[in-house]
Design goal:
homodimer, alpha+beta, Glutamine Phosphoribosylpyrophosphate, subunit 1, domain 1, 7-stranded antiparallel beta sheet, 6-stranded antiparallel beta sheet, 4 helices, 33% strand
Chain lengths: 256, 256
Amino acid sequence: MCELLGMNCNIPTDICFSFTGFQARGGATDVHRDGWGIAFFEGRGVRVFLDPQPSSESPVAELVRHYPIRSTNVVAHIRKATHGSVGLENTHPFMRELWGRYWIFAHNGRLDAYAPALDGGFLPVGQTDSELAFCHLLQTLRQRFPQGEPGRFTLCAALQEHAEEVGPHGPFNFMLSNGNCLFVHRSTELHYIVRQAPFAVAHLKDQDVAVDFNELTSPDDRVALIATLPLTDNETWTPLPLHTVTMFVDGERQPA
Amino acid sequence: MCELLGMNCNIPTDICFSFTGFQARGGATDVHRDGWGIAFFEGRGVRVFLDPQPSSESPVAELVRHYPIRSTNVVAHIRKATHGSVGLENTHPFMRELWGRYWIFAHNGRLDAYAPALDGGFLPVGQTDSELAFCHLLQTLRQRFPQGEPGRFTLCAALQEHAEEVGPHGPFNFMLSNGNCLFVHRSTELHYIVRQAPFAVAHLKDQDVAVDFNELTSPDDRVALIATLPLTDNETWTPLPLHTVTMFVDGERQPA
């Protein structure tokens, strides 16, 4: 299995601190050695850093850890290969364009006996069930909303319906963003926390590193972090509801 | 105007040396200060590094310069904005998926009175004429070959026809790769060189850096480099034929 990390904020924020702990799980403190990737939205644009090497040994991960890219929506993934060999084309997150926006997708789980009929609008490049699921998801959205992108609550409801259809094939924890909001779906494990004023000191579980967010933030900042497992050991992470797509906008969990 | 750099090789090769000279043109020795990007194919996968900062000041460019990513097909671009503001979504190269392969595109030129009708299969995310041209090009290919990717010579002929249709709108120098081969089109300036045994010492025009490729290569290596303007001052770069799509495979220019 893999691990997911997402961030959604009301102002562009860097993810250096959280990525430090997450990166350590890619081979150093955990078994996710089969590559990693991270996508940062900046406006409508997106930067995707992928590396089939373990994140704990990757020079690209070192860059990401030290170069504060400020973003309102981030999706990251570290991989333990199940379907598909280790290779760049099988490294999450995946990117496609739909309705003139980039969409970023990462998945944790394993889908069995899953062979959706694809119409050719989106086709997988690699061999993972995850990329196949992403293509299927985007095809479903395009077919359902041929006039273009619907409002985000409509979109969230469509994703919920889609997740329920795919669910019987196996664990389908995923993160999806178009740069405006972050959709996350929990099948097995997924936790979140919202950091906002009054800010406190947070201490990583996976490395002896602490950050005092009072020194780094302004009073109006609001940052939601979503991760397979809690990243810090002195904050309260909340499990997300099972089998549910949850939407985060401007650093806030939205009502269903 | 912008500058283009492409590499096509018979075995995975790093582009550190050539990128060093190319990077300097992004703000240090030249005026291309409005961002840069580079895409590396590794098998079917691709890594795209984008930065809206000038490449001569970019930490991401420093990473690319020092971390030898070995690739058989590379496309790089430094930008002087004409259409579209400076921003990540307007930074080349652009990526889309067609027929289950990633396609990478970068453009140097300016297309005027250019408003192709798009069917929604590929839509621009940013505001550049270049990304619009890429979407138009992929749509044309998908419509023309609905059964999937044709052979590369058929593809090259279709690209030639397409380039002739777009040509009247303005300079349409471009590079396009799917990881198998590299297609380049010259409207105004485009030069190439093939390095193969016996290898020699090459010296950059834009920085006082020389490399002895004898020390870095094996006798069977063959590397084609294609650039808007020659990158070295002690080798003979050949201008490509005007208004022609040229295909490079395994480090060799293919017969038309």
